[in-house]
Amino acid sequence: MSHSRWMVLIILIFPQFLFPQQKKSSIDSLIAIANNISQNDPARAERFCDSLINTVFRKSAGEGLYLMLAQKAKIIEQQGRFNDAIKLNLEALAMNDIGISVDQRGGVTNNVGRLFYQMGVYNKALDYHFKALKIFEFLKDSTAMAQGYNNIGNVYAEQHNYENSIKYYKRSLGICQNIKNDFGVALSLLNMGALHADKGKYALAQECYDKCLPLAKKIQNDEIEMACKVNLAVVETNIGKLEIAEQLYREAMTYYKSKGDEFTVIFAYVGLGEVAQKRKKYDEAMGYFNAALKLSEKTGSLDEIRNAYDFISQTYELKGDYRNSLVNYKLFSKIKDSLVNIEQTRESTRKEVGYDFEKIAYADSIKRTEEGRIKDLKNETIRLNHEKELSSQRSIIIITIVVIFLMGVVTFILVKSNKQKQKDNMIILSQKAEVERQKAEVQNQKEVVELKNHVIEEKQREIIDSINYAERIQRSFIATKEILDENLREYFVFFKPKDIVSGDFYWASKLTNGNFALATADSTGHGVPGAIMSLLNVTSLEKAIETQVQPSRILDYTRKTIIERLKKDGTVEGGKDGMDVSLTVYDFKKNKLTVACANNPVWIARGAEMIEIKPDKIPVGKHDRDSVPFSQQEIDLQANDVVYTLTDGFPDQFGGLRGKKFMSKNLKELLTSNAHLPMEEQKAILEFTFKSWVGDLEQVDDVTLIGVRI
Length: 710
Known about the structure:
Blueprint: H1 28-40, H2 42-57, H3 62-77, H4 82-93, H5 102-119, H6 122-139, H7 142-158, H8 162-178, H9 182-198, H10 202-218, H11 222-238, H12 242-259, H13 262-278, H14 282-299, H15 302-319, H16 322-359, H17 362-365, H18 370-475, H19 481-487, E1 490-496, E2 504-510, E3 516-523, H20 527-544, H21 551-566, E4 578-587, E5 592-598, E6 602-606, E7 609-613, E8 620-621, E9 633-636, E10 642-646, E11 654-655, E12 660-661, H22 664-674, H23 679-694, E13 703-709
Antiparallel strand pairs: 1-13, 2-3, 3-4, 4-5, 4-8, 5-9, 6-7, 6-10, 10-13, 11-12
């Protein structure tokens, strides 16, 4: 009875993303968020990646788009959508951007090969694994090369190409031994042993397992150790060492039951059944085969169900119970025929998949393939070496001519210089005295400059210390996390001052009628003057809410207080400073929002729509229209509305490729497309977008943007 269908138990422990170690990039935090989300909700993680690709990375392309396409491919691969994952990886590889490194392309190329392998499209899997291997060989990355050889060996093993499979496993083994990678050595030995056993070369298989087992124990890798024992049990069964085989199968069963690995438990049941069958303990064998059948039916694996019926039929035949043997053989044949039909359908699908991907304009979209890039680099190296050799020859000839010429010149100069020597000595002595005098003068000036610099540094340190202390004072006036957490269900605050202290501030308070007020404000100026003005604005708001509860009346009263205070600034007309502010008051019992705005708008995201509440075009402070009362608007809120309040710092920031303003229109689009995401994810996208937009330029103003989900 052939046992080959149960023989090969190859562990494929390779990283799902084979990127060599990268320098940390600015999108690391976004990729980490996507990874965390995908652990619990892959569909939401996919939407998160789509938002980043379409609203942040698609316009600028480059490394960010490349890595996010690969990240999305990884997430949808976890959902079993290998076809879509391949297309995303190919889209990333089609990018011909100089900012994308060769090692990054190698990692994604390897992933495409691995995905084709999982789909059973082995010719395409080999194609991409060989492409990746060329890149790893060019990079001289030994670890990646070893993994690449192992991947190719696995594909050849699935194609039953024993010679090529063993050849590449041996190459992987050799590299891992050279770099002292014990894990890689153990894995290569395990794969080689399984392949030898599948071909009936039990002595070679046992030699591999005898080396693998102690190494697996040394590195304390239980998974490789137990896989080695299971495969070794198959060999021991076939060479007649039944007691050893039984012991190994029982060890494996205990381990894999604890791990919940039902497939390998089925494997162990069948192995124990065959050991009992060889001992002619047919009832015991039947018990193991029936246990395997029961667990196979639970998992729904037709392959294992078919094999279980085959073993049961053969055991009945050995017992002489031909009727039951025939019954089980018919069940075996029926499932076998179904599997043949399924396999034919799969083979047809594989061919169609291979053909579909052949039609992808991958080669046309890349001006230079990775193989071409490597060849170009080699040709460039040869050309430079040749030019260097020619340059060396020319240099020798030129140097010889120059030396002969210089010898003549030196002879002439020596003769003439002797006559000038005595005269020059007198001049040198005079010049030396002058140099010493100037040197002393320069030293004195240097000491004076150092003293001045020291004084300046001390003054600067005092100023910075004072500003830092002022920042602590200012922070005590803005809304605390405690009051926001107490009154809001879900929110974020993106607050980024231009300097240490800020003219922007956000303030919150419970009103006397029980409603919750939240202000997002931009005081006149920024830095220290803006911060001082913000303190006046906050204290004026706090005074206003002692008697007022309507947003418009609060702003009217606040404006009056600010104007009265600034009359005393020493100017004839009194100070014209103040603030632009959006004041939102929430009545959570009635689900209503009342708003009064001075120059700053309020935006409400509702589904795919962005509702804008336009502000009064007057500031809270002295103005030609400071006698006009502020207006207010009342809005009925709906579940999952997101209310955004902001200052002008974000839309007015200069940046991007052309150094232009970000603009309110683009900010609205960014917020609308991401409003469905959790608030912390929205904040991460805003922070990344702002940092990327500013780039090497300077932040021009304070930035405040607050989002509140209803």
